[in-house]
């Protein structure tokens, strides 16, 4: 099952993102369930959120994955959505 995780950072939280980025990227690589990932960018080209496609057995696994992300532990996100996704292309 593919799940799109779409998260928006809290306003003014760029430094939190930068401080936690290495741990977050290590988590992406270590868990083995990330199909695609990258930051969302604002009009100035600065990181302001995340788009991550998870390949997991069910939504509960996606929720647990999201809760254990170092960005989540750092309180970076204002909003996180987990949406089932169907890859067409």
- The appropriate CATH architecture is 2-Layer Sandwich
Radius of gyration, in angstroms, nearest whole number: 13 Å
> Which CATH first-tier class would you pick?
Alpha Beta
Low-pLDDT segments, ≥5 res: none
Looking across the biggest beta sheet, what order are the strands in? Answer: 2-3-1-4
- What percent of residues adopt helix (DSSP H or I)? 25-40%
Count of individual helical segments: 3
What structural class is derived from the secondary structure elements? alpha+beta
Mean pLDDT, all residues: 97
Distance between the termini: 16 Å
Question: H/E element string?
Answer: EHEEHHE
Instruction: Predict the CATH topology.
Output: Alpha-Beta Plaits
Major sheet attributes: 4 strands, antiparallel
The CATH superfamily turns out to be Dimeric alpha+beta barrel
Assess the beta-strand content as a share of residues: 35-45%
- Domain unit count: 1
Number of strands: 4
Report the principal-axis shape: globular
């Amino acid at each position: 099952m593919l799940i799109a995780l779409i998260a928006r950072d809290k306003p003014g939280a760029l430094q939190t993102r930068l401080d936690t980025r290495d741990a977050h990227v290590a988590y992406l690589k270590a868990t083995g369930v990330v199909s695609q990932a990258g930051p969302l960018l604002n009009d100035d080209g600065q990181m302001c959120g995340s788009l991550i496609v998870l390949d997991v057995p069910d939504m509960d696994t996606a929720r647990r994955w999201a809760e254990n992300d170092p960005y989540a532990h750092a309180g970076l996100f204002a909003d996180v959505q987990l949406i089932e996704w169907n890859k067409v292309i």
